[in-house]
Specification:
By secondary structure, the chain is α/β, with parallel strands linked by helices. α1 (7-22) packs across α17 (433-441), α12 (345-356) packs parallel to α14 and α17 crosses α19. The N and C termini lie far apart (65 Å).
């Protein structure tokens, strides 16, 4: 598939640009003029970007144009983030102050020591503020030059756009009708070619035959290729259903949920005119079954119009709806949806076998059968995948050919991959711009990986994928991210791991085929290196320069490393635009190698070192200006460098860092921090002073009460945005007259 998806990134840049302009992050005229020009230019390109994305498959020039647009969009986002970070840094320096804070029982010597410390802090702050002012002069001219360069590149791209005669389309619209003809379905089916759905069909038929005074909608929900239409077809053609209903109507909607189309096609089936009154006459007194196959429209008003056409359903009329969206089911009926589960491995094998060995000669190739079983494991119960793979293997009889398919991670199967993913990609094409990028980001998760719901949302926020708009001062990014995740769950792009009843620990996963789709739409920006399911370690048959060139466009990387993968680390040093780095299963790998990797990736937004055997984090981490998410959970780290306080972190995860003894003294200046995860940090005896100044904090699972004003309960009262659980330790440190000391 290898298609460039640029529209979501352009929307992110536009939103960030609007945010910088609205909040007047820069007050100098030259900056404002250049930014205004950018803001004027972007909507012109956005209007035609989706047409370009569709036409890139048949026009290489358009694809090259999209790549240039994507590169400049990333550069623009980096610059806007840098400008915003410097503004925040200055605000922190101006507002930070050390407050005289004796303990409740401090003597004269103790008070004198604190006064001296306060004076020292004051002088240090003035020096840092002066340094910031001095640095801002050259930075102004450097950033202005970058801004002009970006604007000029965008102007050139806009000029090239005229060569392609791109059409203006609505953002996140549905695919053109011409591309949908292959999905037009009907009620006819060859039952002998269906395996493993007998029980599902029986359940649906039973629901159809139940007496009910209302039109009852039966929604069949599941991912693309799972067999929703097949089950509806089998139920529709069941002899009991034929006898039960006077009239049966099948309408394939795909994405065109249009009340007029439904009425017109129902009238065609009833052989009467196109008037609504005649439709009612045609249906009056008859018990009918209406199948609406492949419904995508999620507008409840449109469904209400159709429902009014169907009458009161006193004759036991039924409607079957198939959809990939749980939201469609909830809109169309209050009855629980019927969720179609994956086929059993045996049924998948039967489907595969029918196509791979159509002459029934499978016993003549005993060497291929065990390999075929392993290939079937890739299908994970999706009938469509079993059929496509079976058809692919039909003309392959050499063991080496089957092994090549079985060992393929990316499923580049001479078009087979496209046949599988093309159906799944229909769902992706329907997503609005913001959900496309959130879904594509999930390619950074290893296959079969389960991630905590909160962690995924926090990573989206850190990557700028779930942000409030420039004019929205109410919504929290966490709520926006949660809405996005729920939308992807409803569309079957993501799944909740079974058994996760506690919303605070809900884990999310992706079906393997959906994961393949994510990798496909993500393209060469995402890389998984190191161990793989099939091969154990990444083959390193290329020369270093070639590998380095391969890594250059990488923006997001997962490294499952071991002692033999030093080449991977060296190659990743060349990924200068890296934004996400997940280091998995590293054990006690070289801290120096990790330090070098981090220092070469100055654009990192997300750094995950969870489970890595690191005891110390090098101070160079403080140079990662863009870093917003740092996960050090489940590591033996003992302390953090003071330089970490220079970052505009939003999430700092230190959960289960059992050796962590203290946090940096100036943690208080990390005012952008929203989530400070310190659960199960057994050796952490106290919190740094003035945590109450981190007013954006939403997660602080533990508060340790100290003996001074800087760490007493009054600090906790300043944190008005806290959510979730909170455990308060050392309440014995609260003085008896605490309530009086607050006023």
């Amino acid at each position: 598939m290898d298609a460039l998806v640029v529209s979501p990134l352009l929307q992110v840049v536009f939103d960030k640009l609007a945010l910088v302009i609205t909040r007047k992050s820069t007050t100098r005229g030259d900056y404002e003029k250049e930014m205004q020009k950018l803001q004027d230019r972007l909507p012109i390109i956005q209007a035609v970007i989706e047409d370009a994305e569709e036409r890139q498959h048949g026009d290489k020039k358009i694809k090259i144009w999209l790549q240039k647009l994507k590169d400049v969009a990333y550069d623009a986002e980096d610059l806007l983030d840098m400008i915003h970070a410097r503004v925040l840094s200055k605000q922190v320096l101006e507002s930070d102050r050390f407050t005289y804070s004796p303990s409740y029982d401090t003597g004269i010597l103790g008070k004198g020591k604190l006064l001296a410390e306060e004076f020292g802090e004051l002088m240090n702050r003035k020096v840092r503020l002066a340094s910031h002012v001095v640095e801002s002069v050259p930075n102004y001219f450097i950033n202005l030059r970058k801004l002009r360069d970006i604007r000029e590149r965008l102007d050139d791209i806009a000029k090239e756009m005229g060569e392609f005669q791109l059409k203006e389309v609505l953002m996140s619209r549905l695919p053109e009708t011409g591309n949908r003809e292959g999905r037009e379905t009907g009620p006819h089916i060859v039952e002998s070619e269906v395996c493993g759905r007998k029980e599902d069909v029986e359940k649906v038929v039973k629901m159809l035959l139940e007496s009910n005074t209302d039109v009852r909608v039966i929604s069949i929900i599941g991912i693309g290729g799972i067999g929703k239409t097949t089950v509806a077809q089998l139920a529709y053609n069941d002899e009991r259903v034929k006898k039960h209903f006077d009239l049966k109507i099948w309408i394939s909607l795909y994405d065109d949920f249009n009340p007029r189309k439904i009425m017109r096609e129902m009238l065609d089936y009833a052989v009467i005119s196109l008037l609504q009154s005649q439709l009612r006459k045609a249906l009056y007194g008859k018990r009918y079954l209406l199948v609406l196959d492949d419904v995508w429209n999620e507008d409840p008003d449109e469904w209400d119009k159709v429902k009014n056409l169907l009458g009161d359903g006193t004759n036991g009329n039924k409607v079957i709806v198939t959809s990939r969206s749980g939201k469609v089911a909830s809109i169309m009926s209050s009855s629980p949806a019927y969720h179609l589960e994956a086929l059993s491995e045996d049924d998948c094998w039967t489907l595969f076998e029918q196509r791979a060995f159509p002459d029934g000669d499978e016993n003549g190739f005993p060497n291929l059968l065990p390999i075929g079983k392993q290939i079937i494991d890739k299908c994970k119960g999706v009938p469509l995948a079993a059929k496509v793979l079976g058809s692919l293997m039909r003309f392959k009889r050499e063991e080496s050919e089957w092994l090549r398919v079985q060992g393929s991670e990316s499923w580049n199967l001479d078009g087979g991959e496209n046949k599988i993913l093309q159906v799944l990609k229909l769902s992706f094409d329907h997503l609005p711009s913001h959900l496309k990028r959130c879904f594509a980001y999930c390619a950074v998760l290893p296959k079969k990986f389960e991630i905590c719901k909160e962690k995924l949302i926090h990573q989206w926020i850190a990557g700028g994928l779930a942000q409030r708009s420039a004019h929205d001062r109410v919504s929290e990014p966490e709520d926006i991210g949660s809405d996005y995740l729920n939308d992807l769950l409803r569309m079957s792009f993501l799944e909740v791991v079974s058994g996760c009843d506690d919303s605070s620990t809900t884990r999310i996963k992706m079906h393997d085929l959906i994961h393949d789709l994510a990798i496909s739409v993500a393209g060469n920006e995402f890389l998984t290196a190191g161990k793989t399911e099939q091969q154990g370690t990444l083959e390193q048959s290329h020369s270093l320069p070639k590998v380095c060139d391969f890594f250059t466009p990488t923006r997001h990387a997962v490294v499952d490393s071991n002692s033999s993968s030093s080449l991977i680390h060296k190659a990743l040093y060349r990924a200068k635009g890296l934004r996400t780095l997940n280091l998995l299963s590293l054990g006690d790998a070289s801290e120096k190698a990790i330090r070098n990797l981090i220092s070469s990736s100055k654009y990192l937004r997300i750094l995950n070192l969870s489970g890595f055997g690191i005891k110390l984090l090098h101070k160079s981490v403080g140079d990662l200006t863009y870093l917003r998410y740092l996960d050090l959970s489940n590591t033996p780290i003992e302390k953090l460098p003071a330089s970490i306080c220079n970052l505009q972190l939003q999430t700092l995860d230190l959960s289960s860092c059992y050796n962590l003894q203290k946090l940096p003294k100036k943690t208080r200046i990390m005012t952008s921090l929203r989530h400070l995860k310190i659960k199960n940090c057994a050796r952490l005896a106290r919190l740094p002073g003035f945590t109450g100044r981190m007013r954006n904090l939403q997660s602080l699972p533990i508060f340790i009460v100290g003996k001074t004003r800087e760490d007493d309960l009054s600090q906790l009262l300043e944190l008005q945005n806290l959510r979730g659980e909170l455990k308060i330790k050392h309440l014995e440190n609260v003085p008896t007259d605490f309530s009086l000391l607050l006023f």
